[in-house]
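Long-time lurker. I teach an intro course on protein structure, and each term I like to show students one example going from raw sequence to a predicted 3D structure in token notation. This year I'd like something fresh instead of my usual example. Would anyone be willing to generate the tokens for the chain below so I can use it in lecture? Attribution to the forum is fine with me.
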Amino acid sequence: MKNDVWRIVSAIFMLVAGTVLSYLGFFQPPVGEISESVLMFTAQALVYAGSAFGIDLMIDAKIKKRAKQQEESSSST
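-- Reply from a regular --
Happy to contribute to a lecture. Here you go:
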């Protein structure tokens, strides 16, 4: 349970950091142009957050599937 909380908090932090950095990078000289390093950080933040949320959803789905299979096998015997 503690690992899930930290994974979600870190994913949300990365999303916020990537969004804020992109927004602030838009106003740095030259105005209206976002640096490649800012875009790279934002992309990595999105990938990290997506993987953190995606792994959690995948594990939950597999656990539910396994529990359903065990329930069906125990009810048939």
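Some talking points for your students: DSSP finds two helices and no strands in the chain. The CA atoms of residues 71 and 77 lie 10 Å apart.
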